[in-house]
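During the practical work, I worked with a single protein chain and the tokens that describe its fold, as given directly below.
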Amino acid sequence: MKEILSIVTEDFSENSFYLIRMIISALCGAMIGLERSRRQKDAGIRTHMIVALGAALSMLVSKYGFFDVVGFDGISADASRIAANVTTGVSFLGAGVIFVKDLSIKGLTTAAGIWTTAAVGLAIGAGMYTVGIGSTVLMIILQVILHKFFSGLENTLNEFTIVIKENPSTIESFKKALADINITLESCKMKRNSDGTVKLDVTIKKARSISMYEIIELAQSNPDIIEVKI
């Protein structure tokens, strides 16, 4: 028992400074995850912290975990292999937050953020504090400031449902009304109801600056449109 405690104590005294890198990495992951969490994303603070911490741990093992064997004849170790596989392996987390529905793809930014968070963890695990912390700051700037700056320039795909009277001209008149405010009707799935009305699942492309409330008001102004659901 004393021998085990002695080994553990010696190992802690030699490797305790690695914990600092892991803590810094987890904090950087938390900062990136905080921004995602505030936007109501599924991958938030805890996910990004764990990704960054795991990446830092992988880098530490990759960089320092084989010093006790590399000195033996006939034994070679590639210190980059574990770290390289982190970049590839973390992709399954990114795939888990990407959702595809019809023409709409959501979660790409969060997936890219998880992948970059892993790289931040690798950098700090390697002792490149300036690179890791600097990347964290740049990530937050890209996510927050540039999101607001480009919000009025980017187009988004939005889906909603309308119930209309069975009138062939209603769809064309609604499409023309959307085109008048620079909104494109991407797709329209039709289903006839038993009460003589028609249900339309509509996908539109619009600028971020145009709110869905404007679309609802536009639809409600048409007497042939009975109901609008977002």
Observations:
- Residues 177 and 218 are 8 Å apart (CA to CA).
